[in-house]
Amino acid sequence: MYTHILIPTDGTDASVHAIDTGIRLAAQLHARVHALHVLPPLPAVSFIADMVQGDACKRRSIEHAQEYLDEVREKAQAAGVPCDAEYVFDNRPYAAIAGAATKHHCDLIVMDAHTHNGIERLMLSNVAHKVILCCDVPVLVCH
Question: pTM value?
């Protein structure tokens, strides 16, 4: 059935449920997982400030990304599931997720149902919704 599951994580509590679900599913299917964290590109002002200060903001963002990905790796290892992981910079998380699914030949995406409130919801800013719309890979959305 599914052999390679993509699990995007943003480090929130909501994504932990999706991580656990994806890893349990991978263990049952004898599949492997690929964990992904999408970092927003640094705005020009932050970029210039970091050049002067020495990339501190970028380093902190990458350290947080590694922590989130390490959490997935540890859970996968505990479940006996092969796992690789990466972080990417993109201001469109849904596009990065769809791109990673294609790049790594994933046949399922397991992600949280992070929803926004108010006007953001009306403007379809929900990342999971956008992934479903722009990706050919099935998406399991966890609540």
Answer: 0.86
